[in-house]
Design goal:
Chain lengths: ~300, ~400
């Protein structure tokens, strides 16, 4: 029983980190009908910023020395997430905006190429970047009530994901800017007609998306305890798969898809003998099956083809 | 009449000269340092853009097409002479060989991406299917490499049908995700299956053999010793020639037209009587067959195959070749594949920075010249009795 519970918690954690990338994908796809393939690498960049601040600069040490350490952690993670948001805006300006209204293959390839460039840049310019880096243990250690299943670290990962989703929900549904994002997502021309500044909305979307991705990267690093420069590719692919399985362009779908993929992977590797090697394969097979038989995802409306 | 015959003779000279110039650019790129390669490609681009701005590019295309015999002779001559020119450096020969190999794969991929507009992120899996089929057959079952290669073409085509099947149901981003997922599944299955060599790959793949002559030995012609790449280079020139000829025929046939119609609008294409399922699956299986053939030859040439030769990065590189060369333009795709292979190999001097530069270059090219070196051509039709219309149809 406790094995099952432990695996459920594992799946939940993996699902949370997938969900955050999937949310990024869905946000971008929602407003621009574009798949930003460098999202995984951008998210990993956030993890590297956090690791870099802790390992290379004295900022984190100074923060810890100045006061409570959790404030330091929050500030460091916020810096990482904000820088990631800015990077995402830069990516948008350089590799997505120039291809608006052209062959959709172009932004697809340019973001893949940008992802490769970013990945390699991290590998080259981060000290010892080609080797796996130990991710600093920023989240609290220890167990809740001495129960080995409920570590504080895992709890924080789930809570942070939930908080981000809640804030995003509030922002998208309750603020003017969030409603403008929805308007642009639904119909860009009509949104511009009623006075929405679509350029600002797009920039803000990519900023927020980058912020979410950066936080996701941080949580992923905390979950695994290590990061490597080329982890972003697989992370992004899983996130995109999660977004599609859930229903591309739908934030709630992204969460469902992320959890589904997390559960599939963890359960295949835990409960099928010799399954560890086939965890990713099973996840992708499920993605392909979904594409063939339910392309609109778990949550999603079937789009009607206009002639 | 006098003017026309003059045009004919001058064209008969001009067309081979243009092709010869292209061959020399490729030769120069093969032999020189990275800087010269970039200068040569820049000069080539400048030439193409100049022709384009003066609206002569299409005329040059037609000129070369009209004088197929002359240009073909130049190409055959160049192919025959090249190994002798490169005999002192087996590495440069290796680059030329790999360039031709990828040109074959890119021509196949072009059916899907260029002609029919279906994104396929799994061409390296097709290639790998061919390579692994032939390698397994010859290493584990001691089948002749030639038979293995033929079988490889069929297994790759089968994989093409399998990967092409989702195209009947999905498109756009969904299709790209499906092909990425299938490509990833392919690599993961090979890594996790010991019988297929797992992460260690398959070593000791035997070379081709014709009678007593093994392709793994040096070729001696009249006292001149040529490196062992020569056999494969000639074989690949032959294969590339055949596939390029076939691709050119297909482009001009009803099939090529049907693919273009699918690319423009599936619904309209279907309503005009084009069998979508058949045409799409044809694009995938035929393209996969090209890739499988190239993959099998690759395995027998390097005698070792590993999964990293057929992973997602390779697929990406192949897609870049098609796009940089010029989608749906047969000579463009072949030229793009060869030039990009050369650039890629030359960047090896910058070992660590290679992939970074690769990514940056790709973004820059997509920004500056998304239509590739030789852009997609407009299809022209002269309806019988309506020649005066001379109206281009089907271009973008």
């Amino acid at each position: 029983m406790s094995v099952l519970l432990a695996q459920i918690i594992n799946a939940l954690l993996l699902g949370c980190s997938y969900s955050l990338v999937a949310i990024g994908f869905s946000l971008f796809f929602g407003v621009m009908d574009i798949v930003v393939f460098c999202a995984g690498d951008v998210g990993l960049f956030g993890a590297y910023v956090v690791a870099g601040i802790c390992a290379l600069t004295g900022v984190y040490a100074a923060l810890v020395a100045a006061g409570s350490s959790w404030l330091g952690v929050v500030i460091v993670v916020l810096i990482g997430a904000c820088l990631t948001g800015l990077l995402m805006v830069g990516m948008y300006k350089a590799t997505i905006a120039p291809f608006e209204g052209k062959n959709p293959l172009m932004p697809l390839l340019s973001t893949i190429a940008a992802g490769v460039a970013l990945r390699e840049a991290i590998g080259l310019f981060y000290p010892e970047g080609r080797n796996p880096q130990v991710f600093p243990e920023l989240l609290p250690r220890g167990y809740l009530g001495g129960n080995p299943l409920l570590s504080w670290r895992n709890l924080v990962i789930v809570v942070v994901t939930l908080v981000i989703v809640a804030i995003l929900y509030w922002f998208v549904n309750r603020t003017k800017l969030g409603l403008s994002i929805q308007a642009v997502a639904q119909n860009r021309e009509a949104a511009i007609m009623i006075g929405v500044n679509s350029r600002v909305v797009l920039l803000v979307t990519f900023l927020i998306g980058g912020f979410v991705l950066g936080t996701g990267g941080f949580l992923l690093g905390s979950y695994y305890g290590m990061i490597r420069f080329d982890m972003g590719a697989m992370y992004g692919l899983k996130g995109f798969s999660a977004a599609v399985v859930g229903g591309l362009g739908n934030i709630y779908g992204a969460i469902v898809g992320g959890l589904l993929l997390g559960f599939v992977e963890v359960f295949v590797s835990a409960f099928i003998p010799g399954g560890t090697a086939y965890a990713s394969i099973t996840a992708f097979v499920i993605v392909v099956l979904f594409m063939l038989f339910r392309p609109e995802g778990v949550i999603g409306e079937r789009t009607v083809e206009n002639v | 009449m006098g003017k026309r015959s003059f045009e004919r003779t001058s064209g008969a000279l001009l067309a081979p000269l243009i092709v010869l110039a292209l061959c020399l650019v490729v030769y120069m790129c093969l032999r020189s340092s990275p800087l010269v390669v970039f200068l040569a490609i820049a000069a080539l681009m400048a030439g193409v853009i100049l022709l384009e701005m003066t609206h002569n590019l299409e005329a040059v295309h037609e000129l070369i097409e009209r004088h197929g015999r002359g240009t073909g002779a130049v190409l055959v001559l160049f192919a025959l002479v090249l190994p002798f020119l490169l005999r002192h450096s087996s590495y440069v020969m290796h680059i030329a060989l790999i360039g031709c190999l990828y040109a074959v794969v890119a021509l196949g991929l072009n059916f899907q991406i260029g002609s029919a507009g279906m994104v396929n992120f799994a061409p390296a899996a097709f290639m790998g299917m061919g390579a692994y089929t032939s390698a397994i057959l010859s290493v584990r079952f001691h089948v002749s490499p030639w038979i293995g290669t033929v079988v490889a073409i069929f297994t790759a085509a089968l994989l093409g049908l399998l990967i092409g099947y989702p195209t009947l149901k999905t498109r756009g981003y969904y299709l790209s995700l499906v092909t990425i997922a299938l490509q990833t599944i392919f690599t993961l299955i090979i890594i996790n299956t010991d019988w297929l060599g797992g992460p260690n790959g398959i070593a000791g793949v035997p070379p081709y053999q014709v009678g007593p002559v093994s392709f793994g030995t040096n070729l001696v012609i009249g006292g001149l010793e040529l490196p062992r790449q020569t056999y494969y280079l000639y074989l690949l020139f032959l294969v590339l020639g055949l596939t390029a000829w076939l691709a050119g025929r297909l482009y001009r046939s009803r099939v090529g037209l049907a693919w273009n119609a699918i690319e423009q609008d599936e619904v309209v294409a279907a309503s005009q009587g084009i069998d979508l399922a058949r045409m799409k699956l044809l694009a995938f299986s035929l393209g996969a067959a090209f890739a499988g053939l190239a993959g099998a030859i690759y395995g027998h040439y390097v005698s070792f195959i590993g999964v990293e030769d057929f992973d997602f990065n390779k697929s990406l590189m192949l897609i870049c070749m098609v796009i940089l060369g010029g989608m749906d333009n047969v000579p463009g795709v072949a030229l793009g594949a060869i030039l990009l292979t050369i650039v890629d190999e030359k960047l090896r001097d910058f070992a660590d920075y290679r992939m970074l530069m690769y990514g940056v270059i790709l973004v820059c090219v997509l920004l500056l010249r998304p239509q590739g070196i030789l852009p997609k051509r407009m299809r022209k039709y002269r309806l019988p009795g309506l020649e005066w219309l001379n109206h281009p149809i089907g271009g973008r």
